[in-house]
Amino acid sequence: MADQHALRTDATGYPVSAALRWEEPPEGPVIVLLDQRRLPAEEAELVCTDVPALVEAIRTLAVRGAPLLGVAGAYGVALAAVRGFDVEESAAMLAHARPTAVNLALGVDRAVEAYRAALKAGAGARRAGEAALAAARAVHREDARASSLMARHGFDLLDELLPGGAHQILTHCNTGSLVSGGEGTAFGVARAVHEAGRLRRLWVDETRPLLQGARLTAYEAARAGMAYTVLTDNAAGSLFASGEVDAVLIGADRIAADGAVANKVGSYPLAVLARYHHVPFVVVAPCTTVDPGTEDATGIEVEQRPGHEVTEFPGPLPAAPEAGGAPVASVAVAPPGAQAYNPAFDITPPELVTAIVTENGVVSPVTKGGLAELCDRSRSGNGMMSI
Ligand SMILES: CSC[C@H]1O[C@H](OP(=O)(O)O)[C@H](O)[C@@H]1O
């Protein structure tokens, strides 16, 4: 399958992606984001000129998705270094902006280690900033390349699991080019199946409460020309029961060393349904999502988000797309004062995962040794250090 989604680059040959790019206008470097809170109604850009603005964009999911958070975090360190902000303080703010996606801390660490190494080698602030930016661009390129490789490995896996014909694939949350330096993770596999004429339908879980599926995956599926249908999360069970799901494809935010998978809340029930209905449950994630430092599920911090995301429907964001603009006139759907349980993720045990697809290949069944074999960072030098 031709790599028709090769990394896009700007006029200077540097990587750009739909969701995020680095720019250097006369007034100083900026990070330009496609504001995902406004999709699909508006393709509005959010320009971050400093690290607090980027941290706010991460916290409010203007920029989101584990692999892209790693890219954004690395560029955030570069922004601090090139603009003369406190790099160590900025790195700590960025690394802790959201707790579950290990990619974020890893991307921040890649850039801050490059910055520290340059200073240690005697470079001045400018050269050290350039080193941080070069590291961020490397993180961006590597993620884009990982996307293409995962699409290929995932396509081949589904061809093996579901030989012949066209398939109905269910996906949860959003895992396309809006979460990646390239074409995404699970959605990239679905796109490859579609481009081979083998996708009968993409079932798109709306993914309450922030509706990444209904808003973002539907947006990406429409642009890709896919046949897709949005469903409420609680309708998935009856879809499995009717035999209309041939495979589940999802992404991940952190994969523990034993293969436990943290992903958008609602993923675990899909894994149980898939097992009960003998349907492959496939996780697609780059090795930057695998965290050998977290032994198992007990070590994964699941982000708890504000209750109003459950008890209210947000109104439109203010006209000026400044970072963090609170929605205007949200509509309450629960009585005033209602409490809400709003974990952003849940954890699927490895025994319910049919396969994990990475850029280095597929592990199935999921084992600690198999994952380490594919994603051992000590070999590739992308080990995670403390920040
Ligand atoms: C493949 S990373 C996409 C991953 O990130 C999403 O979380 P969020 O929208 O909160 O950033 C979700 O877990 C997706 O699977």
What does this 3D model show about the protein?
The chain is of the alpha/beta class. The protein has helices at 51-59, 66-83, 87-95, 102-120, 125-161, 186-195, 212-224, 236-241, 267-276, 308-311, 368-375, 377-380; strands spanning 20-23, 30-34, 45-48, 167-171, 199-205, 228-231, 247-250, 254-256, 261-264, 281-284, 290-291, 312-313, 331-332, 345-348, 355-358, 361-363. The strands form four sheets. The chain has a seven-stranded mixed β-sheet, with helices on both faces. The longest helix is centred in the middle third of the chain and has 37 residues, at 125-161. The chain is globular, with a radius of gyration of 20 Å. Mean pLDDT is 92; it is low at 1-6 and 379-387. The site of the ligand CSC[C@H]1O[C@H](OP(=O)(O)O)[C@H](O)[C@@H]1O has 16 residues, from helix 2 and strand 9.
